[in-house]
What does this fold into?
Amino acid sequence: MIRKICLAIAIIVMAVNVKAEGYAVNVQGNKQTGMGHVGTALNFDASSMQWNPGALATLDQKYSFSVGGFATIIKTEFTGALGKEKTDNPTGTPFYLYGSMKVNEKLAIGLGVYTPFGNKVDWGKTWSGKYLIQDIELKAIYIQPTVSYQLADWISVGAGLNIVYGEFSLNKAFPIRNPADGSYIADGAVELSGSKIKYGYNLGVFLQPTEKLNIGLSYRSQVDIELDYADGEADFTIPEALPAQIKGVFPDGGLAATLPLPASFNVGLAYKIDEKWLVSADVNFVQWNKYKSLDFDFENDPANVLDSKSTRNWSNTQIYRIGAQYSANEKLDIRAGFYYDETPTNKKFYTPETPGANKIGISAGFSYMLTDKLSLDASLLYIEGEKTTGTDPSGSFTGAYKNTGFLPGIGITYNL
It folds into this structure.
């Protein structure tokens, strides 16, 4: 009866209308990415601790290790008053590293290092939106020590501490004006940067009500990367020819800002149809509505001339994922997946630093057993966003954005 109740609760939760995109990077394992990045109800190997810490105790292997990475090749096209302009983004390299050990039949421990958030956008120094953004890089590295315990044959729970290193850098131009009459003089530039270590947690419940069915529930807490003057820095560049009194208006110094890494609640089902076929589906709830504005407070600005507040008003979003795995033989597993990802961005306060859009993802992948313990894992993800028209918070910069991306990945898994 308890198993049936748990199954019913999970199905009801899956049916609720829920709402991730933004600067999230959903590639933390090649096996899962190959299946549309499902994973909440899967227990492949040590990588399961990221999707659901509760799954770790259900692994058959005493030791499990998984390591890999991806190349993010993402482009954005902007169509505005000056025609079409494109980003020249550097290739991102999200990565993952997991290791776990079964202490006994019921208890497992593990450690994961992965990068669930990040963003690299380079519009160039002279594009039409240079006063909003020229280039930006966001990075968040999660270190997660994890413990998992099997309460009974059909249920296990787990928890992980998230030690989060957050880092960002942003470059933009700004017009320098004559204080006497407000006329334009020249362009200046500023680099804003900072880093911080913060903490959060990851919780999971893993249910196996039947031999063929898995149900997963997990929650990863919000982490606010809060920079104070000691953590952030503003570095201004002013043309040498300008007089000292104008240069003095833009002093270098400390910078305070806050960037939320949102909480997420995830629900997943996995069903083993037969010895060959495994199917799985996830829904990810992401609490982006905590991102109300991006505010910069400059230390050397007592008159608050440089401080800025830029409205975001993002919304909570959802991702629907589905994937399948086909075991062709004892050595080869083939995977495919699909997802639909809603954007949290607000079209009334839309900025080219995070040019989000509703998008689809199509993926494929495989694992090949090189030995009876070592496998080669590979995946390829294609992303296409719908064309989105938005206006920046000042109301002065409007245009249409279109995103596309390829994310090839490779890794290895060792189970002993």
